[in-house]
Amino acid sequence: MAGSSVTNRMHNRINILEMRDPDTRDIFYCAFVDNHFVGSYTSKLVESAIDSRNKPKIGLDHSFIEAEKLVSGKGLVRVFINYARLPQFLNIYLGTGNEYIDMFSNSMDFAGLYFNTDHKRMEVKGYTLRKDTADPYIMALLNSGKHRMKAHEILSGRTALYTNIGFSNPVTFVKELENALAVHDPQWCESYRSSRKKIESLFDISLEENFLSWMSGEFAITQSEPGLLGHDPELILAIGAKSIKDARKNMEFIEKKIRRRTPLRIKTVDYKGFEINYVEMKGFFRLFFGGLFDKFEKPYYTYVDDYVVFSNKASSLLSFIEDYDQKKLLKDNPGFKNAFSYLNSSSTVFLYTDVHKFYYQLKPMMNAVTWGEIQSDKEIVYSFPYWTMQITGDGQSASLQCVMDYKPYQPEEAAVAVVVDDEADEVMNEDAETEKEQMSELQRFYVEKFEGNVLREFYPEGALKSEAEVKEGKRHGRYREYYENGKLKLRGKYGNNIPKGTWKYYTEEGEFERKEKY
């Protein structure tokens, strides 16, 4: 605060120092309240702290007292979270509400955390206490134990965000959920039972025997960088199976029942030995797991090792299979291996973030001001490349551990030209050609099986760039190209990958510009 101008004023017999930054004109307010130092850039917060010293609220709260006991004397710094105020606080940065934040706010009382740090990482540990009126899903999760995590052994190395939810037994979880619903909201419980009975009656199945019984209790959800076929982040859900043979048998049984009851045509295709299926499972996931798996209501899925792997897009599932086949896996990522080594192998909730991969996926989650601040602080954010958090439920409370690796960010330098001999150059060309063939094989399969023989390309921001009819892996038929604003740029036809006939070109405003004949 060097160079700041300092003024004093009294509030309720306590002196408040006001330090004004000469460059930004921001004012930092601080005061000594009894044996505490209180500081904030918001004057009302300091005044409230002064006013409440003789009539404390949080300090007399039973849950706060319990949280304070659990972390007393631990760590370099201690932090307490009042979940009741969490949505209001986060809305400042997100600009909108979030149902999961609201759910935790309504379910938890206080969290007590303590910090430790060294030159390689920052570590946060602590405990969070549950309300007696917690959301039924939160209550069931905390009462259902934990599960060993193994999904990273099959997940893609492109993973930016990885969430692993585990409990000892899915059937036990559902029973805990039903008990919690009956206490929390009898009307909601009745609606749940009615929905379950309706699904079972419609398709003539038992959700417990045919859907829950084969699940081991591990649920892995990932959001990855775009793969070879897409331009958007990719979502994957991997559900661990006690026996993949039993899982396949029951999924085939469900498919058969759905096929009988609906006009839906269920696709099954094979890619590199992996059977890719499509089926509408509307209501299945939401019934047991709330809105967490809403994006997987109409999934494509396959079987990989001991997991049934779902995705909301065929392109995402194909890219996942390609990474698995090429052994480009999360478990081999040095950052993940290091972060995972700090924590227990079993948990209730596990969260891992590769900041460099997830950075640009943050933009839609933030308001414009917050995103602008994150961009200006990019080097600081990038200096904490891996964030890992683990929560283990224990009925009334949950233990929490968070680790942030630290490595000062150094922007990549421009590539330096390297002279290679003819033989090495030939090998490099062969490698490049092989990679090109692999990509075209995957792309051709996708276009033929899932896109009706129409190849689409997109701009980095997501707008359609071109679409071409294809035949036997080559452009053959109608071709259209578009400007980023959506206006038609040109149209023509291909014949066996060669332009044919009359091609028409248009300006960015949509006006006809010229035509060419081939």
What is the fold's blueprint, element by element?
Blueprint (H helix, E strand, L loop, with lengths): L4 E7 L2 E7 L6 E7 L2 E5 L2 H9 L10 H10 L5 E6 L3 H9 L4 H9 E10 L3 E10 L5 H7 L4 E2 L10 E8 L3 H15 L1 H18 L3 H6 L2 E10 L9 E8 L2 H18 L6 E4 L2 E5 L5 H6 L10 E5 L2 E5 L2 H12 L8 H7 L5 E2 L1 E6 H4 L9 H9 L1 H5 L3 E9 L2 E9 L16 H29 L3 E5 L5 E8 L2 E9 L5 E8 L2 E9 L5 E6 L1
Antiparallel strand pairs: 1-2, 2-3, 3-4, 5-6, 6-7, 7-19, 8-16, 9-10, 9-17, 10-11, 11-15, 12-13, 13-14, 14-15, 17-18, 18-19, 20-21, 21-22, 22-23, 23-24, 24-25
Overview of this protein structure:
The chain is α+β, with helices and mostly antiparallel strands. Helix content is 33%, strand content 33%. It is built from 16 helices and 25 strands. The strands form four sheets. Strands 5-6-7-19-18-17-9-10-11-15-14-13-12 form a 13-stranded antiparallel beta sheet. Strands 20-21-22-23-24-25 form a six-stranded antiparallel beta sheet. A four-stranded antiparallel beta sheet has the order 1-2-3-4, covered by helices on one side. A hairpin with a 2-residue loop joins β21 (464-471) and β22 (474-482). The chain is globular. Residues 430-439 have low confidence and may be disordered.
Order the strands across the largest sheet as they lie in space: 5-6-7-19-18-17-9-10-11-15-14-13-12
Please work out how many helical segments DSSP would assign. Answer: 16
The helix content, as a percent range, equals 25-40%
Task: Assign an overall shape.
Answer: globular
Structural class: alpha+beta
Spans where pLDDT lies below 50 across 5 or more residues: 430-439
Distance between the termini: 71 Å
Radius of gyration: 28 Å
Number of strands: 25
Main sheet specs = 13 strands, antiparallel
Percentage beta strand: 25-35%
> What is the averaged pLDDT score?
84
